Amino acid sequence: MSETQPNQNTPKLFPHQTPTPSSGSEDQQKDEGMTKLPNGVILDKDGKPCRLCTSAASWRNLTKQAKTQTAATSTATAAKPAAADSTPRPRDDCPPDVEALGRSTWTFLHSLTASYPAKASQEQQGEMRTFLKIFSRLYPCWVCADDFRTWMAEPSGRNEPRLAGRSDFGTWMCEAHNEVNRKLGKKEFDCRFWEERWRTGWKDGRCD
Ligand SMILES: Cc1cc2nc3c(=O)[nH]c(=O)nc-3n(C[C@H](O)[C@H](O)[C@H](O)COP(=O)(O)OP(=O)(O)OC[C@H]3O[C@@H](n4cnc5c(N)ncnc54)[C@H](O)[C@@H]3O)c2cc1C
């Protein structure tokens, strides 16, 4: 990771356009116009909060914090902020968070393996290798992309894309997904079943 890139361990501080007075609560510590970000908010490479790298819950905390601070600075119109809504309101017409983006992308990536030829030509393998290289640079959650690229480039070469045919590629993608599952503390998927999940449907007929 380059030195210009913030990471999850850097202090989560960002400058506010309208610095708040010094009467904030403990979890809104101020430091010369800087405010501590809520846990889980990831910064973009330009130092601004990265919505596509952050969970919806953390993003809501951030916007709630910003609203509270805006209300605190408004002395003339001291309207009370609306009561905090503790229940998440999943919507499908808002920009995605890191999870929605991830779910859609895995659907795309596994479907890509499902439609890959049983035996791929050199040209098809080359195109897919190029796609994965570019994908791993352009994926909009930059921390996710960095880790994915690092995993693929593991020095032993064991994580390099296996592109000879659908079976190899599907299993490789499943392993890549499991790497992220492990990182996030999620259950691993049994890769023997990747094809039933993403191509043929389950043998019990529930997808027919
Ligand atoms: C390349 C990439 C990197 C990511 N890195 C991060 C990250 O660093 N931090 C972060 O917070 N999020 C990351 N994400 C998002 C994360 O992986 C999940 O998509 C997100 O947390 C939502 O998870 P989910 O539990 O809804 O299911 P998802 O993990 O999105 O899985 C969707 C469905 O795929 C199936 N599935 C699960 N595992 C496998 C598997 N191994 N093989 C085949 N099918 C499977 C299951 O049926 C599951 O319901 C990344 C996503 C991608 C595409």
TrEMBL record:
It is found in: Mitochondrion intermembrane space. GO terms for molecular function: flavin adenine dinucleotide binding; flavin-dependent sulfhydryl oxidase activity. GO terms for cellular component: mitochondrial intermembrane space. Keywords: Disulfide bond, FAD, Flavoprotein, Mitochondrion, Oxidoreductase. Residues 63-87 have a biased composition (Low complexity). Its main location: mitochondrion. It comes from the Eukaryota. PANTHER family: ALR/ERV, FAD-LINKED SULFHYDRYL OXIDASE ALR. The keyword Kinase does not apply. Residues 1-48, 63-96 are annotated as: Disordered. Its EC number is 1.8.3.2. PROSITE patterns: ERV_ALR. It catalyses: 2 R'C(R)SH + O2 = R'C(R)S-S(R)CR' + H2O2. This is Sulfhydryl oxidase. Its cofactor is FAD. Coiled coil: none annotated. Residues 94-198 form the ERV/ALR sulfhydryl oxidase domain. Residues 1-26 have a biased composition (Polar residues).
